[in-house]
Structures are given as C-alpha cells and as structure tokens.
Write a structure and sequence with these properties.
By secondary structure, the chain is α/β, with parallel strands linked by helices. It has helices at residues 14-27, 84-96, 115-123, 139-149, 163-170, 176-189, 209-216, 245-255, 319-324, 329-341, 347-350, 353-356, 363-366, and strands at 47-51, 101-105, 129-134, 153-157, 195-200, 222-227, 258-261, 271-275, 281-285, 298-301, 306-308, 317-318. It has a 12-stranded mixed sheet with strand order 7-8-9-6-5-4-3-2-1-10-11-12. A hairpin with a 5-residue loop joins strand 8 and strand 9. Helix 2 runs parallel beside helix 3 (115-123). Bound molecules: S-adenosylmethionine (SAM). S-adenosylmethionine binds at residues 56, 62-63, 105-106, 108, 133-135, 157, 197, 199, 226, 228-229, 231, 235, 363-364, 368. S-adenosylmethionine binds next to strand 3, strand 5 and helix 13.
Length: 368
Amino acid sequence: MATIIPIADRSGDDAARRRDTLLRAAADATGAAAAPPVDALGRGLRDLRISVTDRCNFRCVYCMPKDVFGRDYPFLAHSDLLSFEEITRLARVFKAHGVEKIRLTGGEPLLRRNVERLVEMLAGIGGLDLTLTTNGALLARKASALKDAGLGRVTVSLDSLDDAVFRRMNDVDFPVANVLAGIDAAAAAGLAPIKLNMVVKRGMNEHEILPMARRFRGTGHILRFIEFMDVGATNGWRMDDVLPASEVVRAIDAEMPLEPVDANYAGEVAERWRYRDGSGEIGVIASVTQAFCRDCTRARLSTEGKLFSCLFANQGWDLRALLRGGASDAELGAAIDAVWRRRDDRYSEIRTAETAARPKVEMSYIGG
Ligand code: SAM
C-alpha cells in the first residue's frame, strides 16, 4: 500500500505566510462591528461546523479506514484541542460576523467528554440554531442530557438497516439496533426533526436505499442520501463508486411517488423531495454530481482550532494561535473576516479525477 500521510493539515511553508496574514488582519482590527463579511464569490458566512474531536468509535470504510486509522494513529493530544471556553468564545465572535447556525461534529462528537456542557455554553450565547451530527452509538445514553443542555436537533448517520451490512460499513462490528435505539431516544427527547444521513456507495449499500426509505417514511424523520465524496486522502474514492442522487430519487419515486419541494433557505445542501401521499420527505445531497458551491455559506473549525473555508481544502487558518496569543475578540473577528473575504473555494465545481487525487484534510479532523 502506498504511504499515506494521514495528516490533519499540510500547511508546510505556507503556514508562516498564513500566520502573518492572520496577524496582520487581527492588527488591523478597529473594534467597530463591521457588516458580516461576504466572500470573493459573493457568499455570506452563515454556518459553522465545529469538530470537537478527531476520534471516532467507528471505522467507517469510506471515512476512517482501519488500515490508516489504526491503533497507532497519532490522534491529537487533549492539550491541542480547543477547550470548551475557547470554542464558545470563537462561536460568539463568529455569531457577531454572521453565523446563525452551529453544528457540532467530528470525529464522533459524543466521544468528547462532557460535550453536553459545551452545548450548554453554546446555547447560552443565544440566537443560534444549534445542531449535532452523530453516528448514534452513544445517543440512547445522551439524548435527554443534550436536549436539556439546549441542543435543538440531531442528525444521525445510518448507512444500512441490514445488520451485516451496517457492521461491515462501520468496521467495528457495531449493531444497527443500538443506533436505532439512539434515534428513538432522540425522538423521545424532542431533538426533532431528526435527519438521517445515508452515504450511498455503489456496490456497498445501494440495495439498502428502498428499505431505508420504507422504514422511515411516515416517521417524521428526514432521510437524506449523500453521494460518496472524495474527502480526505484515505478513502480510495473513485467516481465509479458514486451513485448519482438522481438515481436514488428515480428508484424511490418508482415505488413511492415523489415531488420536489422548495429549499427551506438559500444555501440548503439537501435537495428536498416529498412523498406525494403526504407521508413525509427525503433529501438528496448531490455534492459530486450537482455541486452547490455557489450557495455555500459554511465555514469549518477543526479540532485544533483551524478555520477551513471548504470541506476539500488542504490548509486552514490557525485561530488557536491567535486565541492563545492573547488576541481580543475584535482581533479574532478581524481575522475571521479577512479569511472569509478572500475565500474563493468552489472545489466541487472544478472536481476532476486529478483534483480528487490531491492531498486533502481528513473529514474526521475538519468536521463532517
Ligand atoms: N461521527 C459523526 C457521524 O458519524 O455522523 C460525525 C462525523 S462524520 C465525518 C459526518 C458525516 O460525514 C457522516 O454522515 C458520514 O457518513 C459522512 N461522510 C464521511 N465520509 C464521507 C464521504 N467520503 N462521502 C460522503 N459522506 C461522508
């Protein structure tokens, strides 16, 4: 097997240049509240995904394959992670610069000890749509504490109802029944509407599309089918493995007729469809075959506090260095502003076999 550097961020020489740019931007802070930034392609900053840990208790074959993320994998040390206080402080600054929605992710966010305390601190900021994406393994245990702490909703990843397929995909022999129990607990706790994410990989779980649709139709949960993406550098992505979202819609529509629904808001990643008989809705996230970069308002904060302006980036901007270097909120805000204003990422629109092979940051580190 080729040597894979399962590295978080390949900043290299450019890191110093980026640090200088950030420091200069921070030094230019006037303290005055500026208008929320708009990037080089006219996109605002609305959503922030925060990766609270790079660790996961699953080894999904398309995300954290075991042969790379094995026993000896150098996960980040606790001191490298942003503390809850640092995350909350940054979240407050991001909110002042346009962010309306925060999603906690990872890695597996429920593995971060006392994550409900972080939820409580973020909820204390007020005025934020607060959500979390999880593999559901610990959800039955944590759902009501998360709700009590102020979490609005959860998204649960679930790639198959077939226990054998599910165990093969998570690659740690985790039973699907426990995730289903987690979904029920989240519903009982009121973390609704619950979204369920199914990554569809051709030849692996496409035969589960219809059983999943049948199972969750009429439950109020929103099942979303995600095209297998070329995130990171370790999942062996090939275009041939991508099942286009249009095929998913066609297959479901043939048995359970669908009609399109307008987006809830500009920039919504999922294309919405509802069952014509009124029994609910599904979504498809076609980031490979129908790129939605032009509406992308998402920033990502990595586990160790680097700001990434695209899921497919290979470098971030080190906000932790500013935080730990004593920057004021105005300085942090000016740095975030500067990063956003120069953003011109549109990776999914320019994806080719060649770009897919380039080094990219792992999703577990940057936040899925
Ligand atoms: N551990 C949490 C979970 O399982 O939901 C949060 C992190 S996980 C990286 C977030 C989402 O990214 C999951 O729904 C996962 O299935 C999805 N994902 C990971 N790798 C992907 C890929 N190559 N293509 C599409 N989706 C992917």
